[in-house]
Design a protein that fits this description.
Helices cover 23% and strands 19% of the residues. α9 links the parallel β9 and β10. It has 392 residues and is an alpha/beta fold. It has nine helices and 13 strands. The strands form three sheets. A six-stranded mixed beta sheet has the order 2-3-5-4-6-7, with helices on both faces.
Length: 392
């Protein structure tokens, strides 16, 4: 492992900001026919003076809204005006103004396959399509390995998404009602009844091992830049998706995936302790993705480009901020060339103390006597205090 010093400006979560562009771009609405006759609408953002360009394909499950507009601002400024790419930002099936009936499995591969086919027939197509997006837009990308046209996608940039939504919504088998339905009620109320009545059908798990014993991730044929958040409810499945891409993908791209872990929650700042330069991780991820998109546009591979020597993992080491001698200051960026550094397991014991404090502290040494305390979540004042925690 090697420490990395990074000087970067702080960036609002999910990186929906305007970037000073150098390429004039125009925007219009286009329709794409699906195999069943349903038409999906997309914003098509094109560089005015570049006849053939890489296509950044973004799939959104949000209706026309402020959220969608923020995503549109980011994609236009970051990918077209700055980099000269064509952007196809699509309203998924059933999301206004696209046609069809919306279901959570609209994030699946069929409509993606049909759109990727449509892109290949467009006059600007240069042979390269990539994908990008955060949250639900990242989940849609992680469904790509199920698609027949997945090999036509040359690179991906999923941020803060889950590759296994069932594990997020049903940890240990229990349905996280509030987590799921707070999101669904945020502009998505028209199908809230479906998620409560048919949640297991809608949030069904992806088979990570296929019937022939081959990993689901073996269908991954493109390099990618993943962004995860230490406080994000999708943290575990974001990292698991990266691990699948990194170690179980097609041999041609195995080991050529990147992960940036930021000290934030889901598209928000996270935790009660300030994290200096913490949001710079979104800038790091964006710059890695920009370089990767250029590498595949040039017809090169990660191994054959100047990205070959870049660290594959970059993460923020969080600490208490205590800079006194012996304090655990933390709060800096670190990186590893190929994989996570080796870890050493440590056994921790609940401390023995008086009835007001027993069980609230952790020791590395075994206590001399058993500790007894009452655990009752109704009496939250006596629970172990925490700072932060994963949230949506």
């Amino acid at each position: 492992m090697r420490a990395t010093v990074l000087i970067a400006f702080a960036l609002a979560a999910c990186s929906f900001i305007s970037v000073q562009g150098i390429v004039p771009c125009s925007m219009r609405i286009v329709t794409t026919p699906m195999r069943d006759g349903v038409e999906l609408l997309s914003y098509l953002i094109e560089p005015s003076e570049i006849p053939r360009a890489t296509t950044v394909y973004i799939r959104s499950p949000y209706n026309y809204s402020a959220t969608h507009n923020a995503q549109l601002l980011w994609s236009r400024s970051q990918f077209c005006e700055k980099s000269g790419h064509v952007v196809v930002q699509q309203f998924m099936r059933g999301r206004s103004p696209s046609g069809g009936l919306w279901r959570l499995d609209s994030m699946g591969p069929d409509d993606m396959d049909d759109t990727v086919d449509w892109i290949t027939m467009q006059p600007w197509y240069n042979g390269v399509t990539v994908t990008a997006g955060a949250s639900a837009l990242a989940i849609a990308q992680l469904a790509a390995p199920k698609g027949q046209k997945s090999p036509l996608i040359k690179a991906q940039f999923p941020m803060l998404g889950s590759g296994q939504a069932h594990e997020t919504m049903f940890p240990g088998g229990a349905y996280m009602c509030a987590l799921s339905e707070v999101w669904l009620n945020t502009g998505e109320a028209e199908f809230i009844a479906n998620i409560t009545a048919q949640e297991r059908e809608l949030w069904r798990p992806v088979q990570m091992v296929l019937p022939d014993g081959v990993s689901y991730w073996s269908n991954v044929t493109q390099p990618s830049v993943h962004v995860a958040g230490w406080y994000d409810v999708f943290l575990t499945e974001s990292i698991n998706a990266f691990e699948g891409y990194q170690h179980e993908s097609h041999p041609s791209v195995r080991g050529n995936q990147f992960l940036v872990v930021v000290p934030t929650g889901h598209c928000t700042h996270g935790g009660q302790i300030p994290r200096p330069c913490g949001n710079a991780g979104f800038v790091i991820g964006q710059r890695l993705a920009d370089r990767m998109f250029q590498v595949v546009t040039d017809g090169n591979t990660i191994a054959g480009s100047d990205m070959a020597t870049e660290p594959r993992l970059i993460w923020y080491i969080m600490g208490s901020g205590d800079t006194t001698p012996g304090g655990d200051a933390g709060n800096f960026w670190a990186s590893a060339d190929t994989d996570w550094p080796a870890t050493e397991p440590k056994v921790l014991y609940l401390a023995v103390g008086d009835s007001n404090h027993a069980g609230r502290l952790l020791n590395v040494s075994a206590p001399s006597a058993a500790a007894e305390f009452i655990y009752d979540p109704r009496y939250w004042q006596n629970l172990s205090p925490t700072v932060g925690g994963n949230f949506f």
